[in-house]
Amino acid sequence: MPNPQVVGSSPAVPAIQIDQIDTVRGILALLVTVYTKPDCVRCRQTFRALDAQGTEYRAVDVSKDADGYAAVEALGYLELPVVVTPTEHWSGFRRERLKSLKADA
User: Fold this and answer.
1) pTM score, two decimals?
2) Where is the Glutaredoxin domain (predicted)?
3) N or C: at which end does the chain have fewer Cβ atoms within 10 angstroms?
4) Which residues lie closer than 8 Å to 38 by C-beta, 6 or more apart?
5) How many domains does the chain have?
6) Phi/psi zone of residue 54: left (φ > 0), alpha (ψ -120 to 50 degrees), beta?
7) Beta-strand pair 58-61/82-84
8) Which CA distances in Å does 36 have to 27, 43, 65, 77?
9) pLDDT tens digit string along 58-97?
10) Which range marks the domain in which residue 89 is found?
11) Looking at residue 96, which CATH number applies to its domain?
12) Which residues contact 14 (CB under 8 A, 6 or more apart)?
Protein backbone atom coordinates (compact mmCIF):
# COMPACT_ATOMS: atom_id res chain seq x y z
CA MET A 1 0.00 0.00 0.00
CA PRO A 2 1.51 3.40 -1.00
CA ASN A 3 2.20 6.04 1.63
CA PRO A 4 -0.43 8.81 1.67
CA GLN A 5 0.74 12.22 0.52
CA VAL A 6 1.49 14.54 3.43
CA VAL A 7 0.94 18.31 3.49
CA GLY A 8 3.12 20.46 5.74
CA SER A 9 4.71 19.60 9.04
CA SER A 10 6.38 21.29 11.94
CA PRO A 11 7.32 20.27 15.46
CA ALA A 12 4.22 22.05 16.85
CA VAL A 13 1.71 21.00 14.18
CA PRO A 14 1.39 17.40 13.03
CA ALA A 15 1.42 16.68 9.30
CA ILE A 16 -1.95 16.40 7.57
CA GLN A 17 -2.51 13.66 5.05
CA ILE A 18 -4.27 14.62 1.81
CA ASP A 19 -7.17 12.29 2.60
CA GLN A 20 -7.75 14.20 5.87
CA ILE A 21 -8.21 17.66 4.33
CA ASP A 22 -12.03 17.48 4.15
CA THR A 23 -12.12 16.52 7.82
CA VAL A 24 -9.84 19.42 8.67
CA ARG A 25 -12.06 21.84 6.70
CA GLY A 26 -15.06 20.59 8.68
CA ILE A 27 -13.27 21.18 11.96
CA LEU A 28 -12.21 24.67 10.91
CA ALA A 29 -15.80 25.48 9.95
CA LEU A 30 -16.84 24.71 13.51
CA LEU A 31 -14.36 27.34 14.64
CA VAL A 32 -16.38 30.16 13.04
CA THR A 33 -18.03 32.16 15.81
CA VAL A 34 -20.64 34.87 15.29
CA TYR A 35 -21.15 37.23 18.24
CA THR A 36 -24.69 38.53 18.15
CA LYS A 37 -27.51 40.15 20.16
CA PRO A 38 -31.31 40.04 19.95
CA ASP A 39 -33.05 42.11 17.28
CA CYS A 40 -29.86 42.64 15.27
CA VAL A 41 -30.69 42.98 11.57
CA ARG A 42 -27.11 42.56 10.34
CA CYS A 43 -26.72 39.52 12.60
CA ARG A 44 -29.77 37.89 10.97
CA GLN A 45 -28.35 38.72 7.52
CA THR A 46 -25.09 37.07 8.50
CA PHE A 47 -26.83 33.93 9.79
CA ARG A 48 -28.93 33.67 6.61
CA ALA A 49 -25.85 34.00 4.39
CA LEU A 50 -23.89 31.39 6.36
CA ASP A 51 -26.86 29.00 6.40
CA ALA A 52 -27.48 29.44 2.67
CA GLN A 53 -23.91 28.48 1.79
CA GLY A 54 -23.75 25.63 4.30
CA THR A 55 -21.11 27.11 6.58
CA GLU A 56 -21.29 25.82 10.13
CA TYR A 57 -20.83 28.33 12.93
CA ARG A 58 -21.37 28.93 16.61
CA ALA A 59 -23.57 31.86 17.68
CA VAL A 60 -22.81 33.67 20.95
CA ASP A 61 -25.42 36.11 22.30
CA VAL A 62 -23.36 38.81 24.02
CA SER A 63 -26.42 40.04 25.92
CA LYS A 64 -26.44 36.72 27.81
CA ASP A 65 -22.79 35.66 27.71
CA ALA A 66 -20.34 37.84 29.66
CA ASP A 67 -17.33 36.02 28.18
CA GLY A 68 -18.69 36.64 24.70
CA TYR A 69 -19.15 40.34 25.48
CA ALA A 70 -15.59 40.49 26.81
CA ALA A 71 -14.26 38.80 23.66
CA VAL A 72 -15.93 41.41 21.40
CA GLU A 73 -14.71 44.21 23.64
CA ALA A 74 -11.15 42.82 23.62
CA LEU A 75 -11.18 42.82 19.81
CA GLY A 76 -12.15 46.51 19.91
CA TYR A 77 -15.44 46.25 18.05
CA LEU A 78 -18.44 48.49 18.74
CA GLU A 79 -20.81 46.95 16.17
CA LEU A 80 -22.38 43.50 15.87
CA PRO A 81 -22.23 40.96 14.46
CA VAL A 82 -18.60 40.16 15.02
CA VAL A 83 -17.42 37.15 13.03
CA VAL A 84 -14.29 35.34 14.20
CA THR A 85 -12.60 32.63 12.12
CA PRO A 86 -9.32 30.78 12.69
CA THR A 87 -7.49 33.36 10.55
CA GLU A 88 -9.39 36.67 10.73
CA HIS A 89 -12.21 38.65 12.32
CA TRP A 90 -14.49 41.53 11.36
CA SER A 91 -17.68 43.29 12.37
CA GLY A 92 -20.84 43.96 10.43
CA PHE A 93 -22.50 42.09 7.60
CA ARG A 94 -19.70 41.50 5.08
CA ARG A 95 -21.05 39.35 2.25
CA GLU A 96 -17.70 39.05 0.42
CA ARG A 97 -15.93 37.80 3.53
CA LEU A 98 -18.72 35.39 4.37
CA LYS A 99 -18.45 33.89 0.87
CA SER A 100 -14.79 33.09 1.59
CA LEU A 101 -16.00 30.77 4.39
CA LYS A 102 -18.09 28.64 2.07
CA ALA A 103 -17.70 24.98 3.06
CA ASP A 104 -16.57 23.79 -0.37
CA ALA A 105 -14.38 26.81 -1.16
Assistant:
1) 0.71
2) 32-90
3) N
4) 61, 63
5) 1
6) left
7) unpaired
8) 22, 6, 10, 12
9) 999 999 999 999 999 999 999 999 999 888 999 999 999 9
10) 32-105
11) 3.40.30.10
12) none
